[in-house]
Prior knowledge:
46% of the residues lie in helices and 13% in strands. By secondary structure, it is an alpha/beta fold. A 7-stranded mixed sheet has the order 3-2-1-4-7-6-8, sandwiched between helices. A 3-stranded mixed sheet has the order 5-10-9. A hairpin with a 2-residue loop joins strand 6 and strand 7 (244-255). The radius of gyration is 20 Å and the shape is globular.
Amino acid sequence: MFRTLATSLVGASLGGLGAAMIGPGPHAKAKPFTLEESCKPENRASAADALLPLFQTNYDAKIKEAFASIGGPAMLTIGDGHSNGLFFNFMAHVNRTVVEQRVNLPVVNVALDTLGMKGCEATQQRLAATSPRSGFVSRLRTKLSGKKPQPTPVLKCVSVEGWLPSELSQTDQAAGVRGTGTCRYNMIIWTKPHILKSALQASSHGVLMIDTDVVVRQDILQESVQRLTEKKGASIVTGIENTRADRINTGTVFITPTGRMFTEIMDEWIKENSNYLNDDHGDQAALQAVFLTNHRLLQFAVTYGDSVGQCSRMARVATHYNCYANKLAPMKSQGDWDVATQTAREQLGLHNEKGFSKQSEWLQQKIESLEAGGEWIIPNTHFE
Length: 384
């Protein structure tokens, strides 16, 4: 009854942009993953649920280890090699904010494949090499001066390569692996609440799961903690869908393990997650369904309001570059698609021309809107 009601309500709330599919649930015996069968709309839920034992066995502990070592709130990003360009840009903005505003914004990036992990490690090495505290002399001067150390960017890389089937990395358009609502894209965003739950089980300070097409301008972690004080017992902060406070956006989701209802919210979100593998909004539609049908849990949720702008709208704390159908042209026209950075990625084998030309449409759309808003910057500029 709960799932049926959730499906009808969220379908209405999203304006008919995609009907949710109710999956058959986990099978007693997992079937081998194939694009032809597992990606059929009626099979996606059971195919995804069959991947959960592998996650718990091989990857859950790695994520927990990364977050347990951070002594405060942290950000969580998730992606594969196709999103390396956006990840580099995201980290450049985070680094700028850390240095210019002297705040701590640690990031744990969970890479879904080898190329994504290489991109994270390359960024990690660059941060270490250019950090103002990376040298012995610099650290000694800071210690002798008695001044509080300058915050520096913190990036941890966690690989979960092998969790998602390798078949999903194929770029055969006929197999349904390109664009929102398709098998590949929705399987990637399906991982988000599962990874977030593992992070929360290890963090005692709170985790902000954030998409890499979000440009951070101020201390979004402090803003997240502050938002929770607006409502007694609040446990979760979400973005809103293009100024609609009644529709959430999971491009920015902060949850604290100290809240009263965070465990139940996460459990209900995960319970619904696989049922929305055919919805363009995926994990977002699942969480929206939870709040539409469980008003008790909704009482413990607050939003970022206008502090995080959607659809490239400039905002005080951050801007989320969603909502765009074609972003590449305006990026190039305004000169914010950095050719030198693209060349460097190609030289590293992290983003070659072939991969760029065939990458998923949702990534190109995000990059194009970043460009249009003047937010696609050269990562090396802010690493120096």
